[in-house]
Design goal:
Layout (H helix, E strand, L loop, with lengths): L1 E10 L2 E11 L4 E5 L6 H8 L7 E6 L2 E2 L5 H11 E4 L11 H11 L5 H10 L15 H13 L5 E5 L7 H17 L3 E6 L2 H4 L4 E6 L2 E2 L1
Parallel strand pairs: 3-8, 3-9, 6-7, 7-8
Antiparallel strand pairs: 1-2, 1-4, 4-5, 9-10
Bound molecules: adenosine-5'-diphosphate and magnesium ion (MG).
């Protein structure tokens, strides 16, 4: 499903990723662990088409996304990727319902039923009209999970999804991610610096000094 071939990424003189080769199978739940600054977010951003490598190839479903035009890469990101972030990244001035609907609007899909269904599935039925500030951190991450899934992307990318939650809430969020990803057969790449979060994955790899270990 996802193949990285000798992918390198530099920021100026900083060699963040030095020839990453990695394969993620369809439906697999992979975690990548590494300390802060090891290049985890950079790696996810490359897979998600939010950034481009300096060299190497990234194949997704057999297509080389590094050869895409900017427009094609934007379409890829909108359609194929669901992103879950450490700090939720919800829009503060719109409701739960509107936040979850965003990926559908971007893909020109009008399926309000799907929005309601995913909100209910993450346990937030009845909270559709609330604003993010009226929710706990765990509830905000549930909104973000619904938003990551509502457009039925093939790939879920999770960047330290429990990093700003207490450990009990974090565990509940990981249970939900694993359950929903399994039900909907998503391919998941999770990055984290926490071993007990990484343990939720089917397979774990490490990243150190810009290389997979
Ligand atoms: N946009 C950027 N510009 C310059 N340096 C960056 C940028 N993004 C990340 N870096 C650097 O790349 C390294 C890896 O960052 P990152 O991928 O965010 O690591 P992690 O997510 O594992 O903490 C760090 O040294 C960071 O300072
Ligand atoms: Mg990071």
């Amino acid at each position: 499903m996802i193949i990285l071939e000798d992918v390198a990424k530099n920021y100026g003189d900083t060699h963040v990723l030095k020839g990453i080769t990695l394969e993620v199978r369809k439906g697999e739940f992979l975690s990548v662990t590494g300390s802060s600054g090891s290049g985890k977010s950079t790696l996810l951003n490359l897979i998600g088409g939010m950034d481009r490598p300096d060299s190497g190839k990234i194949l997704v479903g057999g297509e080389d996304i590094t050869a895409y035009t900017d427009d094609a890469l934007t379409l890829y990101r909108r359609k194929k990727i669901g992103f879950i972030f450490q700090f939720f990244n919800l829009f503060p001035n719109i409701s739960v319902f509107e936040n979850v609907r965003i990926p559908l609007l971007l893909n020109e899909i009008s399926d309000e039923e799907a929005v309601r269904r995913y909100i209910a599935r993450v346990g937030l039925e009845g909270k559709e009209r609330r604003y993010p500030y009226q929710l706990s951190g765990g509830e905000q991450q549930r909104v973000a999970i619904a938003r990551a899934l509502v457009h039925d992307p093939e790939i879920i990318l999770a960047d330290e999804p429990t990093g700003s939650l207490d450990s009990r809430t974090g565990t509940a969020i990981m249970d939900l991610v694993r359950e929903l990803a399994g039900e909907t057969r998503k391919t998941v790449v999770l990055v984290t610096h926490e071993a007990h979060i990484s343990a939720y994955a089917q397979r774990e790899v490490g990243i150190r000094d810009g290389s997979i270990v």
